[in-house]
Amino acid sequence: MVTLLTFQHDGFSFDVDDTGGDSGGDAVVLLHGFPQTKASWHAVTPALVEAGYRVLAPDQRGYSPGARPPGRRDYSLDKLVGDVLALADTADVERFHVVGHDWGGAVAWGLGASAPERVASLTSLSTPHGRAMATSMVTSLQLLKSWYMLAFQLPGLPEKLIGAGGGQRLRAQLRDSGLPPAQVDASLELMTSGGARGALNWYRALPFSPPAMAATITVPTLYVYGDADFALGRKAADLTARHVTGPYQFEVMDGVGHWIPEEGERLNPVLLAHLALHPA
Which residues are catalytic? Predict the structure, then answer.
């Protein structure tokens, strides 16, 4: 078996960490969120590899330097899902577990909706099902929490604000949100060295994602929500169960904020138990 460093799709080159492949175990694809990279899984990957899993953690579209198309339509959810399927094909993996955080969670939901035959199990950290999120926008205070998603639609201005003063405003916002200092530094480097436009285009592509990406989920699903999340309210989290007909587990982590992958000691036992119940 060849360990992957990169894979190709749609004319782009993506960076990927491929760890634990010699074990012969099931593959677990880890999908980072905004504004992070595959390095955000540092507290999760070792536990998965120790348990015998092969871990595939890509830098996704807009984050990999070789995969930063300028147009917002290039970031629709079907294209992001296609990138993950291309990774699995390149790794010669037919069925895999997918774990996504934040926007990576949205891609995980999209995979479960559009390619259930490829997904052994789905885990979303922080991010509710898309239809639950849409409902919460008009039935709770979620729209106020999501003000930044509207602000990110403006062309050019968010990039300028992020880069102003060497990114110190972004640094303060990430630090105040509870992201650990090392991850703050990594995010700041990404967003001030050419990655901002691609990362923001995930938000700008929201109107172009096909409705099929929000279909009901039939695969085994684990949804982990931190009840101190600054960006995502409880209403959408509670509504998500309506959109899963497969085996479903909802875990609420008391006192945990948005950055659940950083909570390895609490997350890993729950995640490993879920994966063990649903082998590929």
Answer: 102, 203, 258
Q: Which residues are CB-contacts of 50 (< 8 A; sequence separation ≥ 6)?
A: none
- Which H or E element spans position 185? helix 181-191
DSSP 8-state secondary structure symbol assigned to residue 6: E
Q: In angstroms, how far is the first alpha carbon of the chain from the final one?
A: 18
Q: At what angle do helices 181-191 and 196-204 cross, to 10 degrees?
A: 90
How many other CB atoms sit within 10 Å of the CB of residue 74? Answer: 19
Task: Please state the domain extents for the chain.
Answer: 6-277
Class of domain 6-277: alpha beta
Is-contact 28 272, C-beta < 8 A? no
User: Average pLDDT in the 245-252 region?
Assistant: 98
Q: What is the pLDDT of residues 31-66, one digit of tens each?
A: 999 999 999 999 999 999 999 999 999 999 999 999
Cα gap 142→134, rounded to integer Å: 9
Q: Which of 15-19, 82-86, 189-193, 274-278 has the lowest average pLDDT?
A: 189-193
Burial of 146 (C-beta count, 10 Å sphere; 0-12/13-18/19+):
middle
Those residues whose C-beta lies under 8 Å from the C-beta of residue 57, and which sit 6 or more positions away, are 16, 17, 19, 29, 30, 31, 32, 38, 41, 45
